[in-house]
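Problem: given the chain below (519 residues), write out its structure.
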Amino acid sequence: MTVATRNSMVLRLSVFLYILPPVLFAWYLQSTPESTLFELTRRLTPFPSAEQRQALLSDLEDPFSHDWQHLFQDQKSFYSRVNMENDQSIPHQPSSPSVVHVIVLVHGWLGNPLEMNSIKESLVDAIDQQEKASHHDFVVHSAVCNDGKTTDGIVAGGKRLAAEINSLLRFVVHGNPNASVTLSICGNSLGGLYARRALADIDWTVPLNESKENDENHATKTTTTPPSSSTSTSINPLLFVTTATPHLGVSQHTYIRLPRAVEYPIAQILDQTGRDLFRFSNVLEEMTYDDAYIEPLQNFQQRIAYANVYGTDFQVPTPTAAFWALDSDSPHEVVDVSDDKTNNPPDTVVLTLQTPQRPPPKNNYNIQHTEQDPTKRFQEWSQQLDRLGWTKVLVDVREHVPQVSVWSSSTSSSGDDASTTSNKSWSNKPKWTAHELLKEFGTGLLATATLGFSGKMRIPLGHTVMVANAKDKLNKWLTIGGKPVMDWLAASMVQSTQRLSGWDLPDKLTGKIEENKKP
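Solution.
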């Protein structure tokens, strides 16, 4: 065994042992809310608990059908409403906007709505910096339905999210009956999978004169005849964004590759969500191939995936966040964002790529075959998702994660810090395959991720850093380095909203409005 191999093994083991205890401890706190430790943690945290937040939504049948007015007025720490004309906090009749843009932010595993505060603040700032547009309103909402409920599986969380989004859309449509309504979703980590699952249950046509009885029964999908276009508003899917989301699951995509036999007990510890992520259920297969999930995802004007690179993300490594697979020939074209003087990307954004939309191949997926060959399984998943057409943003947060001195600078003579890889010998390469990207950015780069200049080991906490996770004071302090990434994401989302919905050309949108109303 060479010295380099031995050092690599020691580093892998050290990182694993460093990260595993807090992960298990966090799981313990959530699974035993009556514990003294949990109560102490909650008392030390100045934010409301999950129970206090959920208490605002008292109707167990459909907790999101009647409380929006109260929540938008009194709970501004969780709900933000931006009106370009007069900054009112709730939808209103007098301004009669032509378009209302609804943006829903979805937190991840063991998170809460505050997790998305950085991106929410960035979105509000980005909207305020734009020219006043009296015909466009914004609703920026952090979903609350999965607060304290992230262990019962992707299906359960996705259904709750769909119910919350449906209720919010009804509230917006009924408050603005003459407006066109767009929907954008930004899901972080597990929240991105919740969002993909929720798409199958979102009501893309909202009745304008819905009765109270229909409101009460809206939490469960019915097969009634859809309302006529003259009495309804169609929701226009605009942007679908994920940040560090495990699109391929975490089986064979853990930071340190685990045998299948070891994955099973870990999945059991993490309850149904763990079984879904480690492929001990068929949820991920269904979401990748079932038209009920793929078609609404394809209907969005743009799909965007942010992924940490260079081994900085312990929970969601690059291959699953960017859905790259070995031997995948999915084409990725480099997008030049350097000319955008109004929204220059931060130094942490390494590369922006785009996959062209292509018709999916004939579905000859064979679970038994691919179970024997996981590489084939992930290759098919990767290609299936890439054919939808995605923008992928690669983020390097090595300079913003905690560092620990390991040995002197003489030992680290190679200087394999971030500045070395920032030489970008590949910067002039205009096209990549997923296989090439995986080799360059996603695997075999543990030393690059962990060994910095002067022999410092970087702890791979990029999962929370990239989104500037603000779910509590400690996380907000530790992840401040990711705020420029969220500022850039928010500005990009607002610019895309302008471009895709005809911000400066409201007359274009009147056609959509009239189309919804014509008999």
